[in-house]
Amino acid sequence: MTKRNRYAVVGFLFVLPSLLYYLFVFMGPLLLSFVNAMCRINFLLGTRDFVGFKNYSNLFSRKYFWESLFITLKFAVMSVPMMLVVDLFVANKISQFKGNLNMVLSSMVFIPFIVSMAAAGIVWDWLLDPNLGLVNNVLMALHLPTSLWLRSPDTALYSTLLITLWIRAPFGIMILLGGISNVPGDLYEAADLDGVNAWQKFWKVTLPLINPQMVMVFTLETIYAFRAFDQIYTSTGGGPGGSTRTLMIYLIKELFNSDYGMASALTVLMLACLFLISLLEQSFLRRKVDY
Question: Quick one: which of 15, 17, 119, 224 has the most CB atoms within 10 Å?
């Protein structure tokens, strides 16, 4: 065996544990979902009967599926643009600071992202409690109107948006901040010589040059919006009155225990839709950047 082949074998052995983990933890269950989506499964009897596309037709005939799909689309349409705007604003402001202050602000902003989403949902449920929560008590002290927040069908979904923004925004901010920091300073100096203001520099210089990072954040936040579960489940459980029953809540709480084949069918549908959405976003929004 040549020295080059020995290096190849050693390299393969190093990546083998990660490869096996990926195959058995991700690819295995994924492929099994495609198979289960075509079967009627009874775990008590240990049976698996092939039914073709019947699980999909049964899924489409369920009222709660369409309601959950509408709530999920509403959540995504509201959360993704809001997330991108907040990420851009904060990242641009932090980038204007230099040295240690920039590092301190970046670290402070990133802290919420390391918190467990389930834990964040529980904490925000306490904070937004209509009677004992800190938020309503502060509003009352300032003589401002209070809200039922997570306890009302009219405001519950919007309240989960605030929780999601608090959890997810740091991730996008860090990505966009990295993109802004890589924009050559010469371009800003040239813009200053041309007499452009701060808004024009942001619109004409910064935004076009961080397009890859913006599309990345947009795509990842879209995927997350469709599969949001933890913070919604721990704060509202899909209620009140099903107002926050997203597709993932519907899948885990109702389909997973009652009809595993239909749950697998919904999983396959979500995977296909997210793949198509990501492909379209990358095709139509991403632009080649030349410094």
Answer: 224
CB 177 within 8 A of CB 96: no
User: Could you tell me what percent of the chain has a pLDDT over 90?
Assistant: 35
| 49: Cβ contacts below 8 Å, ≥ 6 apart | 39, 40, 41
Show Cβ contacts of residue 156 under 8 Å, excluding neighbours closer than 6 positions: 149, 150, 236, 239, 240, 243, 244
Question: What pLDDT digit, counting tens, does each position of 92-117 carry?
Answer: 888 888 878 888 888 888 888 888 88
Q: Exposed e or buried b for every residue in 12-30, given b needs 16+ CB within 10 A?
A: eeeeeeeeeeeeeeeeeee
Q: Which of 125, 219, 121 is nearest to 167 (CA)?
A: 121
The burial of 154, by beta-carbon neighbours within 10 Å (0-12 exposed, 13-18 middle, 19 or more buried), is given as: exposed
- Positions of the chain with pLDDT under 70: 1, 3-4, 288-291
State the sign of the Cα–Cα–Cα–Cα dihedral 162, 241, 246, 249. positive
Handedness of CA 42, 47, 51, 53 (dihedral sign): positive
Taking the whole predicted model, whether its pTM rises above 0.70 is answered as yes
